[in-house]
């Protein structure tokens, strides 16, 4: 059973998947391969001088897979249902292929909020998904990122940060204290 199910394979979803998988949470990323990044070219992403969006996605997938994230490219999530309550609760994620149980779910589906509406999360007066600073929605354990929480402020680097924020909150919950994914040069040796 994955501890973290991520719906969406753009910068937010892949960032969340990288952080959670890197820190030993069983992570599955569902990716329909329809991210806006396939239409982009990056000149404004910190640390990247110039890169095609598709190349970025492929590199990010490879990086997340390197930490054992289970990439399900082409497997579309058709429903997400809350099961149980509070800390004992979780989610059932349904695709055309199977059902998966997860403790947490991160939504990174651009402006598509259908799954979140079905889950019953709260929205703002601007029809954006209402989240806290850690990207958690009104449904415990459900996170929303990127374009669905920002009115016309869509940038890959911001979305990646949203995914990172959601992952760090999940990791903090799992560790029982504030967690920071901070590596030092010795970690690379």
Tell me what you see in this structure:
With 189 residues, the chain is of the alpha/beta class. Helices cover 28% and strands 22% of the residues. It contains four helices and ten strands. The strands form three sheets. The chain has a five-stranded parallel sheet with strand order 5-2-1-9-10, covered by helices on one side. Helix 3 (114-119) links the parallel strand 9 (104-107) and strand 10. Helix 1 packs parallel to helix 4. The longest helix has 20 residues, at 156-175. It is globular. It starts with a strand and ends in a 14-residue tail after the last helix.
What's the short version?
With 189 residues, the protein is of the alpha/beta class. It has helices at residues 11-22, 53-66, 114-119, 156-175, and strands spanning 4-7, 27-31, 41-42, 51-52, 70-73, 77-83, 90-95, 99-102, 104-107, 142-144.
Question: Key terms for this structure?
Answer:
FAD/NAD(P)-binding domain; 189 residues; 5-stranded parallel sheet; 10 strands; single chain; alpha/beta; 3-stranded antiparallel sheet; globular
- How many E-type strands? 10
Sheet/helix structural class: alpha/beta
* Alpha plus pi helix count: 4
Instruction: Specify the helix fraction band.
Output: 25-40%
Query: What is the gyration radius calculated from CA atoms?
Result: 16 Å
Listing every helix as H and every strand as E from the N terminus to the C terminus, the arrangement reads EHEEEHEEEEEHEH
């Amino acid at each position: 059973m994955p501890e973290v199910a991520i719906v969406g394979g753009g910068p937010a979803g892949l960032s969340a998947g990288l952080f959670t998988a890197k820190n030993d949470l069983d992570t599955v990323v569902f990716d329909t391969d329809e991210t806006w990044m396939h239409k982009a070219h990056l000149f404004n992403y910190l640390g990247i001088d110039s890169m095609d969006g598709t190349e970025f996605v492929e590199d990010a997938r490879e990086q997340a897979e390197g930490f054992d994230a289970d990439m399900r490219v082409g497997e579309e999530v058709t429903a997400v249902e809350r099961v149980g309550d509070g800390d004992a609760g979780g989610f059932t994620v349904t695709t055309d292929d199977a059902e998966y149980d997860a403790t947490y779910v991160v939504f990174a589906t651009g402006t598509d909020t259908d799954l979140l509406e079905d889950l019953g999360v709260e929205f703002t007066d601007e029809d954006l998904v209402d989240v806290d600073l850690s990207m958690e929605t009104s449904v415990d354990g459900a996170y929303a990122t990127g374009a669905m929480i920002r009115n016309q402020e869509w940038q890959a680097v911001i979305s990646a940060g949203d995914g990172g924020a959601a992952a760090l909150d999940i990791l903090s919950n799992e560790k029982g204290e504030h967690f920071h994914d901070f590596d030092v040069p010795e970690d690379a040796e």
